[in-house]
Amino acid sequence: MGSFKSFSAFLLFILGLSVLCGCSGNNSQTQPSLTIWHWMTDRQKAFDVLAGKYEAAYGVKVNFELYAPSDAYSQKVRAAAQGVNLPDIFGILGEKRDFASFVKAGHILDLTPYMRAQGYAWQNSFFPKALAVNEFSAGNTYAVDPGIYAVPVDIMAIEMLYNKDLFRQLGLDPDKPPQNFNEFLGIGRKIKEAKVQGLVSGWGEVWMVDCLANNFAFNIMGQDKVLATIKGDLPYTDADWIKVLSLFKEMQDSGVLANGVVTMINKNAEQVFANGKAVFAFNGSWCVNVYKGMNPGLNYAAMLPPRASDKFPMAIWGGAGASFMVNARSKNKEEAVKFLQWLSAKDQQAYLSETTMSLPANKYCLSVVPAALAQFGRDMEHSTHPNTWSVSEYPQVIEAMGKGIQSIIIGEKTPEQVASEVQRVKERQTARSKK
Predict the structure, then answer these.
(1) Per-residue pLDDT averaged across 75-97, rounded?
(2) Is residue 116 within 8 Å of residue 126, measured between CB atoms?
């Protein structure tokens, strides 16, 4: 009898253990595990730390999966979209039309209801220009339902920087960078006489050349005329566009451009400036983190590109730097939204800014921005970005413009020749799009 009771007790123990294990398994299944794809090599460690904090606080495991370089990342995202197996959260690298195509294909969740909940609390925590890149307005040319479709992780601005120590060597006031184009060219003559390097930038990548050309175009002709050109209502052979292109010839002739700038990739340009060998750089706010790693003692400051006209304000490219989207088909989309709300909140944004030297997208933690980033943050009021415009230019036209400017700098073509070539590409692409 005693043996039977012992055996019965053992069975009850096993049954109880099974029930407990079964309950434990079910509980673990109710807690989703979020997967996030990204391309930001300099932020993986910070993301991992934040993922650990989130899991400790909410019991949800978050996996930040890094895929680099950016081209490889973009290919992976496109392939996953075609196979309908995107992760819970991801980002898109590309133009606004690429973003729109993902939305229209049903891959991206509309975040507008979440942004506007509780009196627009989440939406109002961001800098407006950070959200603008991720928003589609009513009547947009992409035929996307109006709304906000991504969460900015940080903001960025692209402008010029100058080396204060080299300014002193050239007899210039290190606290007074050039304000207009003539002052800028005058420094070019000093650079040439001193036999130092002038402006470095990744102009071997045509998008960076196009960026500065757009800055000058906004300053010379204003946004309306620039957008009219993209729409096809104004040719690139217009006198104002000739003036924009001529600025690059003037910079080359004055000596303000570094030798070989048209073949530089941005990493090489950053190395030259960080080593104190170039007077100017044209780069994005991410460079603060890059320069810190290469040369913590570098004495430099940011500045707006020198205005070429008093007719319109100088504009720089800026807005959301990196952004994350929620997979509309994810079974964990509600949890994904909660995580992005947490990631974009003040404390997490402050941590990312301090550890990665990035500008926070959350306006409530601007006070913690490192000093080197302060100027970039102040200049955000001058920012614009192609992804916020009502229209977008054909990639072939952008490439023709960038390569054309490269040819102007090395003396192969005149501004007039390049303008004519860009216009021919524009007309050809317009005709093709109508077929």
Answers:
(1) 95
(2) no
